[in-house]
Amino acid sequence: MGTTGYNPQEIEGKWQAEWERAELYAVTEDVSRPKKYVLEMFPYPSGDIHMGHVRNYTIGDVVARQAAMSGFKVLHPIGWDAFGLPAENAAIKSNTHPAEWTYANIEKQRASLKRMGFSYDWDRTVVTCDETYYRWGQWIFLKLWERGLVERKASPVNWCSDCKTVLANEQVVGDGQCWRCKTAVEKRELEQWYFRITEYAQDLLDDLEVLPGWPERVRTMQANWIGRSEGAEVEFEVVGPAGDPSGERITVFTTRPDTLFGCTFFLLAPEHPLVPGLVEGTGYEPAVTAVVAAAARESAVERQLGEREKNGAFTGRYVINPVNGEQVPIWVADYVLMDYGTGAVMAVPSGDQRDFEFARKYGLPIPPVVIAEDDPLFATLSGVAERVADDVDWEEAYAGDGVMVQSGQFTGTQAGKGKEGARAVTAWLAERGLGRSSINFRLRDWLISRQRYWGNPIPAIHCPSCGLVPVPEGDLPVMLPMGVDITAGETLADHPEFYETTCPRCGASATRETDTMDTFTCSSWYYLRYCDAGNSEVIWDRSKADYWMPVDQYIGGIEHAILHLLYSRFFTKAFCDLGLLSSAEPFTNLLTQGMVKLDGATMSKSRGNVVAPEEMIGRFGCDSLRAYILFMAPPDKDLDWSYGGLEGMHRWLGRVWRLVADAAEKRMPAGAASEKAAGLRREMHRVIGKVTADVERFQFNTAIAAMMELTNAAYDYRKSVPSAEQDPTALLEASETLTLLLAPFTPHLSEEMWRVLLGYGGSVHLEGWPVFDPALAAADTVELAVQVNGKVRGRVVVGADEAEEAVVAAAREAVAAWAQDAEPRKIIVVPGKLINIVC
RNA sequence: GCCCGGGUGGCGGAAUGGCAGACGCGGAGGUCUCAAAAACCUUUGUCCUAUGGACGUGUGGGUUCGAAUCCCACCCCGGGCACCA
Hints:
Blueprint: H1 8-21, E1 35-40, H2 51-69, E2 73-75, E3 79-80, H3 85-94, H4 98-115, E4 126-127, H5 131-146, E5 150-160, E6 165-167, E7 172-173, E8 177-178, E9 186-195, H6 201-206, H7 216-226, E10 229-239, E11 245-254, E12 265-268, H8 275-279, H9 285-297, H10 300-304, E13 312-320, E14 327-333, E15 344-347, H11 353-362, E16 370-371, H12 377-381, E17 402-404, E18 414-415, H13 420-431, E19 435-440, E20 446-447, E21 449-450, E22 456-457, E23 460-463, E24 467-470, H14 496-499, E25 500-502, E26 509-512, E27 516-517, H15 519-522, H16 526-529, H17 542-548, E28 551-557, H18 563-577, E29 587-593, E30 596-598, E31 601-602, H19 613-620, H20 622-631, E32 639-640, H21 643-665, H22 675-696, H23 700-720, H24 728-742, H25 747-757, H26 774-777, E33 781-788, E34 791-799, H27 804-814, E35 826-830, E36 834-838
Parallel strand pairs: 1-2, 1-28, 3-4, 12-14, 28-29, 30-32, 33-36
Antiparallel strand pairs: 5-6, 5-9, 7-8, 9-20, 10-11, 10-13, 10-19, 12-15, 13-14, 16-17, 17-18, 21-27, 22-27, 23-24, 23-26, 25-26, 30-31, 33-34, 35-36
Helix pairs in contact: 1-25, 2-20, 3-4, 19-20, 20-21, 21-23, 21-24, 22-23, 22-24, 23-24, 24-25
This protein binds one RNA strand through helix 7, strand 11, strand 15, helix 11 and strand 32.
């Protein structure tokens, strides 16, 4: 057998073709076997794949291949998230059609992914801009609509002037910028389509608890985004212009009903609809209008920058504080947000820093109502039910827990979020119909309509007499017309042949909706379509979806911590309620991989610091690249690319190749087992255990290090034992084990070694994963470190099951020169590790 | 400001209460060669009065027989959230 050396270029293409011919990775349901659904976030086809993809998909491939060797039925699919704005931008730039650009990139990426040897079931590929996929996206829209989860409403929305479309709240990042182009987002009052994700706010929050396989960071980010607050709604009656009772009430939300006695003014957001009516024709109108206008002029960016000076104006009107009947002035303040709570706030300057600053600026009273027991004021005010102190000399508001003071019958009660005082005040209000306990979420409904061409058309029709009418299921899909010239700035709204239609309900002439859906609607269910990708009758066969779902291991970037991962959870829950699916959560375990950087900087085409995977594959083969990208760092950490390391990886694989080739060549009947051969076998079993455990916890870097150690042990054996005395069986065993352990990491090299060098008939990828036997990894002797007062002063070699007294005696002997003559005060024995003699 | 990560040789990293620096890169030296490449071998934390010893995991304290690891305080880096009532 020739040992011409490891040449990846000769073997990789060969085996890729063979695997495809043998349909090695096509998979079907098999209820008799445990399944594992391994999924990586599908790519957006913007050019060729980059190192980030290589890392993401290699991690998934190792998990998938190792699971298959361990006896699982493994679903490992791939597809493309193909609708979206980059395709439009690229098309405008290069004067082509978005479809042309998109499909060309898909083909490029498909070839690159195949060149990496990933074990995908290519028959299940989905492409979201393909009619066979997006028609089901429209079907989902109709189902959600039927269930009351779709809504069209007018609301202040985020508008990106660069992308010329509205954005969901989740797509506004940083200090109020568009997630794609980083342009500052503007607020506009528009009528748009929403998915009512807020219906699931509580479920989405609660079920984070049943996702222990998710990084805590991601769960925290989602919990914060959902932003649940417990508190109360309190109703304030507006006093009429002449001091008469108006009967009109304004509701506020507060997390601190226990501070109600400290409410000395009342705030409305500048956009609050009641504001104009309150001041119209009064002397207060000019000042209030100025505040409203100033707030409207500010961009969302400026508005969201906290810590800036608060502005407001008195409206000349009052509300009645329901707890003590006092009249409280209504102000308009620019720090009150219209889209959280009710857009109205009870201001408690002594208990809220923002209200405190506002009160100081405008000379409003700051009566203390919650006092910490160690506060000097506590002694004076603790039993005072009437208001005696109308101001404080504090530097800042006190928002902590304490005791209620100057609070009528509640004085002396425990104060704080959810404390007795808060409950008591809420109950008192509820009895009188002036309030109730309430929960508020920060999460907003998901704005899904986009004023863009390259997306999934919203299947709705505007009828002048019937209003909004869903496109009948039988008429799906609403085809996205190809003849729209976006380079000329056209959208669907410029194409009457698209939007002119008749109402399915009354038959009158009507118009189609010309907005398309947010691309995130497409990526929120692709993992379900993979379960039954080719089905043209139904979205998926429920038994197939129930067999594969949930995804056992999902792998992708942290940038989707909220967006994609929250939307997908929402879809899954809605599907569950629609009876389409059994699992309420889509992804059981989540691994967020770190970024691949170059000299500490994110790789990007515009920076010109991109390392092309293609080029690395050309030089060293994809197996070296795969192993190296895993070896550089644990998968969740960012890594810095280095060329030298890749060469080192390639060098090691060559070393493995020569070891296996040599062992296969010298294959002969088992010789006499020597102690050194036994040592090699022990090392081999130790490494099986280590690699198995490391793959399980995604420590691919240490798994590879362990395999390098086995390689070194085998080389060491060959070096230290004369050829004639070597046990060829031990080397052959080590070689075969290494070949099997490496199979998920370097599938082509392993296949070549298995089938060509070692001469086996079948694919290494159909072999069983080596089984770890701790007994075979155990040595008969161990070396122990001997410490004196915690410092290593010597070492002893003892039998593995030597009695403790004998071990201690040997240890004391070894450090006789260090230990004092006197009897040690204490001797600590850590079996198999060390002995510490304390003098 | 609040909430998460993280800080270990020249570099990537290993060790989650028990021998700090596994494994690899890089460096130094050697074998083979006319030579080079490849391969193989040795060596590689710092310092010192050097067959030995001291020091050493961001800083300062603490707990422990023993701390990179646990606790307290602080510094630095990265990320997320941030006028959410």
